[in-house]
Design brief:
With 638 residues, the protein is an alpha+beta fold. It contains ten helices and 38 strands. The strands form eight sheets. Strands 1, 2, 3, 4, 6, 7, 10, 12, 14 and 15 form a ten-stranded mixed β-sheet that branches. An eight-stranded mixed β-sheet has the order 27-28-26-25-32-36-35-34, covered by helices on one side.
Length: 638
């Protein structure tokens, strides 16, 4: 063992809790006794860039409330591709509350030589999402840079974060079990005093490995999970989020949902204190507005446009929240502080405002509530004609709306939790885009016409179309999806509701149509019209994970292009014979008769998750429709 391995080095500020780097031979207490088999590699995982040989995570809450999190991993690099993402791990902690202990940080070369990380390769910085804000100045990040990296080396890191009592409200975790790379063995343990209950839940693993519960010396209870041969689960463009495609382990010492939601709501409610500065902020925002709902909306709009949001979850891990007046003076804050300021400002106007917590759909589990589900604080303003829901950063919340797929969680006053689910637009119904009309091309080579547009579901959001300018810009964008060479000369929104948008649009070519060898070219968009809203990963020919869409949709484009007398179409957009699969169907037909070219395209999907095998036919069809041959109309005199 080298002298470097034997010594302890204290670095950082001389605070009550500092960063400690300790390097010791063998396994320290809290880590499993036996190391992994270092010979495992490309022979067992021929198609992988790396493999996690063993990964141990140990969470401990001591009787005095001290929390310890131990993380020990052996990662073997099978190619050089993972170096950028894995060779410089970063560990965050807060000086004064946390102690970082690095037990082992070293590279194990293929011949067994051990290269410890040298002193100069432990570098301090501030976390990107918290650096620069005075309230979070004590947050630090240690960057660990390995040496001697070669193919088939093993990067071993064993570190521990010790958090003082009364900092964390609960011992909890929301762990992704399937990493980007396969894992040979994964061990997770949670150790708490015998009188403390742990709520836990495993999903995405079959069969479900049950927790092994045992008594530990000193009046402690341990819950332990062991996972073997976990496949790698790298994400791809538009994959489902890892919470829905990977194995997942959640645990918490929080007793129930009411305690969890109450922890957020009560601290924000207490911080929403009225003050002269807050009242002036609200009065300046509303100006001469008298309608109560609009007054609340204007306060939220001003906050949203002028406030600096610090969204790092670590920033509010202790459920600390400055008073609204202090938050206003600094003009920055966590989601908790932004919620307190918004609630205080609205209350200063004499309006009835209560505070609720937002939670993500794929994060919230009432039986095992964890901070990973947190999505900000919501202010509910009670009005005679119905409540107005306001998010400090996202504005007014509609149901369904742009901020969909979230839960609104509050307290009912009787020790329970109120829960309201906010739908995303198009989440439960098929979204439709229908564009129909007639385009006339004159002998001079100009085109004019009229389109009828109808949209439902996720193809538009009425909350974003409140002004005439926004409506005009939106309509222009829709027209551009089907007629690249045309502009909007006049439009009329005939219907704009939560359910449907309808418009009639006059269009004209931006000038004389493009000329090609004395022929005129009319371009019918840049491919399917839905792609601007419902994106698809069309650039890659291979796919391993499901493609995730925000909902099912249907496109129907039906155009009649009238040609000048004596003209005909020398080239028409190529038709697409009906392509169908479990995902839905697509078809494009083109015909010419009596001087009129009729173009009709219908595409529809039936689900929001498409398997790789099913996506192949959809991808091929959409790439065909994006080709110039499928969208160019060339006209010529006979």
């Amino acid at each position: 063992m080298t002298s470097f391995n034997r010594r302890w080095m204290v670095v950082g500020a001389a605070a009550s809790f500092a960063t400690v780097l300790s390097f010791a031979a063998g396994q320290a207490q809290g880590s499993e006794a036996a190391g992994p088999d270092l010979s495992i590699g490309s022979a067992q995982f021929p198609d992988e860039d790396a493999v996690i040989l063993r990964w141990e995570q140990h969470y401990t809450m001591e009787k005095d409330g001290t929390v310890r999190r131990r993380d020990h991993q052996w990662l073997k690099l099978l190619t050089r591709r993972p170096i950028r993402g894995k060779a410089d791990p970063r560990v965050d902690y807060r000086i004064g509350e946390d102690e970082l202990i690095i037990h082992t940080a070293q590279t194990i070369l293929p011949d067994g030589t051990v290269m410890p990380v040298p002193d100069y390769s432990f570098n301090k910085t501030g976390p990107d999402d918290l650096a620069g804000w005075p309230e979070h100045i004590h947050w630090e990040q240690t960057v660990i840079s390995y040496s001697g990296i070669v193919t088939d080396c093993v990067l071993e890191l064993d570190y521990e974060i010790v958090t003082q009592p009364d900092v964390l409200p609960w011992l909890e975790g929301d762990l992704r079990l399937h990493d980007d790379y396969p894992t040979v063995e994964r061990v997770v343990s949670v150790t708490v005093p015998a009188d403390v209950a742990v709520n836990h839940h495993v999903e995405g693993i079959s069969p479900d490995p049950k927790a092994v519960q045992s008594s530990i010396d000193g009046g402690m209870t341990q819950y332990k999970w062991t996972f073997k041969r976990l496949a790698g689960a790298r994400g791809e463009p538009q994959s489902l989020p890892w919470q829905e495609r990977c194995g997942r382990l959640r645990f918490t010492t929080c007793a129930n949902a009411a305690e969890f939601v109450g922890g957020f709501v009560k601290v924000v409610d207490a911080a929403a204190k009225l003050g002269d500065g807050v009242k002036k902020f609200a009065e300046d925002a509303v100006e001469n507005e008298t309608d109560p709902g609009e007054r609340a909306r204007k306060v939220a709009k001003k906050l949203r446009s002028t406030f600096n949001f610090v969204n790092a979850s670590r920033g509010h891990r202790s459920l600390k929240c400055r008073d609204a007046e202090a938050v206003l003076q600094s003009n920055y804050g966590t989601p908790l502080e932004a919620g307190a300021l918004l609630a205080a400002a609205i209350r200063s106007l004499g309006l009835d405002a209560t505070v609720e917590m937002g939670a993500t759909r794929n994060g919230w589990l009432a039986e095992v509530p964890t901070n990973s589900a947190f999505a900000g604080m919501i202010v509910r303003v009670a009005l005679p004609d119905g409540a107005v829901l306001l998010h400090p950063q996202h504005g007014e919340i509609k149901n369904p709306g742009d901020w969909g797929r979230h839960w609104l969680l509050g307290l009912d006053g009787a020790g329970g939790v109120t829960a309201e689910y906010v739908l995303g637009r198009g989440e439960e119904v098929t979204s439709e885009i229908t564009i129909a009309g007639t385009i006339s091309v004159c002998k001079a080579g100009k085109a004019t016409g009229e389109l009828r547009i109808a949209l439902t579901g996720g193809f538009y959001d009425p909350a974003k179309l409140a002004t005439a300018g926004k409506q005009a810009s939106f309509v222009k964008g829709i027209v551009g999806r089907v007629l690249s060479d045309c502009k909007v000369t006049k439009h009329s929104i005939t219907t704009l509701s939560d359910d449907v948008l309808k418009a009639t649009v006059k269009v004209a070519s931006k000038g004389i149509l493009k000329e090609l060898d004395k022929q005129r070219v009319l371009e019918l968009g840049n491919g399917p019209a839905f792609l601007a809203t419902y994106h698809l990963p069309l650039g890659r020919s291979s796919r391993k994970t499901e493609v995730h869409l925000s909902g099912a949709f249907r496109e129907d484009v039906n155009l009649a292009i009238e040609l000048p007398k004596g003209w005909h179409a020398t080239i028409t957009p190529a038709p697409l014979a009906r392509v169908a699969g479990s995902w839905g169907a697509a078809e494009q037909s083109v015909s010419e008769k009596d001087g009129v070219v009729r173009f009709h395209r219908v595409i529809e999907t039936q689900m929001d998750r498409i398997t790789p095998a099913d996506f192949a036919s959809l991808r091929d069809a959409m790439n065909t429709l994006k080709c110039p041959a499928s969208r160019l109309l060339v006209l010529s005199k006979r």
